[in-house]
Specification:
Layout: E1 8-14, H1 25-39, E2 43-51, E3 54-61, H2 63-66, E4 68-70, E5 76-78, H3 79-99, E6 111-114, H4 126-135, H5 137-140, H6 155-158, H7 169-176, H8 180-185, H9 193-199
Antiparallel strand pairs: 1-3, 1-6, 2-3, 4-5
């Protein structure tokens, strides 16, 4: 994982063998708290969606994200990469203790995709497309029938259903030219497969 400042990234990982990583509501809330504690100080959190067996984040890297630190092995590592490693490791330990299990909970490598490019032939950026794509996950998985009803994503924040402070909504609106009315105007029943393919 090698980030560049001022760039937006889609960060995601899933459970080993697609196994669950969240088992009850407290697990989701604990993970969100860890995002706030570990990642907010070194990046701008734009949006998130936590699913039973995987998670998605959109972040904007800052100078703090790319600051280097020495690790136990002596190899320098960017601060964001170090902190997401701490987040996943400490969360895994808590889940193993909760479930009386052992071993790694997540896949070994967290995936990172840069979102700075424009979509070919479209005025929208990959940032905008990815934003809608990750929030559509609970609909595609048939966990809820309306996007606003999935409580473990930033969609309720962006539509005004809740007033969360984790995500930098102003930054997202400024970078995409969208506003709260634009978000509210998207169908709350989710997006068709054709629309999802357009997003990602």
């Amino acid at each position: 994982m090698n980030l560049y400042p001022e760039e937006f990234y889609h960060i995601y990982n899933r459970g080993n063998n697609s196994q669950p990583i969240f088992f009850k509501e407290d697990n989701y809330l604990f993970f969100i708290k860890k995002i706030r504690d570990q990642l907010s100080p070194v990046s701008e959190i734009i949006s998130y969606c936590l699913m039973p067996n995987h998670f998605h984040l959109i972040i904007k890297a800052t100078e703090n994200s790319i600051a280097t630190r020495n690790t136990f092995g002596g190899k320098p590592m960017q601060e964001f990469a170090y902190r997401i490693g701490i987040l996943l490791s400490s969360y895994s330990q808590a889940i193993n203790k909760q479930n009386s299990t052992s071993g790694s909970l997540f896949q070994q490598k967290t995936k990172v995709k840069i979102l700075s490019e424009q979509v070919e032939g479209k005025k929208e950026s990959y940032l905008e497309h990815c934003f809608f794509y990750i929030h559509n996950n609970p609909i595609r998985a048939k966990l809820v029938s309306k996007l606003k009803d999935w409580p473990y994503s930033s969609w309720p924040d962006y539509t005004g259903k809740q007033n969360g402070t984790l995500c930098n909504k102003a930054l997202f609106f400024d970078c995409t030219g969208l506003n709260e009315n634009d978000i509210a105007g998207w169908h709350d029943e989710g997006f068709s497969e054709a629309e999802v393919k357009r997003f990602y």
